[in-house]
Give the backbone structure.
Amino acid sequence: MNDIERVWIRLVSAARKAQTPRATEIPPGFATRVVARWKTTPNSPSAWEFLSVRALVFAFLLMVVSMVANYNMINNNWINNLATNYSSVNDDWANSSAITDIIPEFISTL
Amino acid sequence: MPENQFDMASILLRVRAGDADASRDLVIFLYPLVIKIVRAHLPRSLSEEDLAQEVFMKVFAHIEQYRGTVPFEHWVSRITLTTCINHLRAQKRRPELRWTDLSEAEAAILEGAMSAEFEADRLQAVAARELVNKLLDCLNSEDRLVITLLELEQRSVAEISQITGWNRPLIKVRAFRARRKLRKYLNKLLERKT
């Protein structure tokens, strides 16, 4: 142990003697003041909660705005897709009926 | 209210339901615990009553988050310590301590502590406490907390771990580094005096 450590130990042990047990009685009206302040303080959400709610609202509004702005494109796309799907189903059906026509002919050749 | 008559579980239920009387009882019951911690880790710029009030506001604001896995007093102690640490962190750390920063009594106590026959009386003890606090002001808030709990309050590492929630190796490492820094500051202080 060097000299500095000894000085520190002596200082700390002297400082401990200054720690007299002080009164821990609650000041008059303290509890009432705390409770009144708690009751009057609105339950404000934490910063993260506040930001996440804001972000959710903003994202929803952004979605609505972009849907309105691109309504025509979305609508046309949907109609086109529907039309394409309908025609492809029709083609498949037509093809499949062509095949069913060929099968009896094929069987008769056997 | 005596501790054995205090039914914490039912008081907490009533506080959660918004009962003002139960909340007042809770503040009165917890005040001695909170004020002891606040006094031991009080930043320079705040009054102990203001800080205690802030602690209770946090306790009430987060009381729904208390799950009962630890005794309620431990949970409150941790909130108190965290609040104190946050304020100490915001407080500007003293860059270093110079001989001219010391009062006459503090300079005398430091000179006295250099002798092996040093024995502090009551007044010298107060000066020693002020000097130790000035040296602790040079540390960051976590180091200061560890040294205060270990050296001034003479708590064990296990107790500190329970109070702060830090694991034992972390406390030992922090204490080691904090003591090394304190030795450095004390050494500089004594070098400049000569």
Q: What stands out?
A: The mean pLDDT of chain B is 87. Chain B is about 70% helix and 0% strand. The radius of gyration of chain B is 20 Å. The interface with chain A takes residues 20, 23-25, 27-28, 31-32, 35-36, 39, 49, 52-53, 56-57, 60-61, 109-110, 113-114, 116, 118, 120, 122, 124-126, 128-129, 131-132, 151-152, 154, 179, 182-183, 186-187, 190 of chain B (CB under 8 Å).
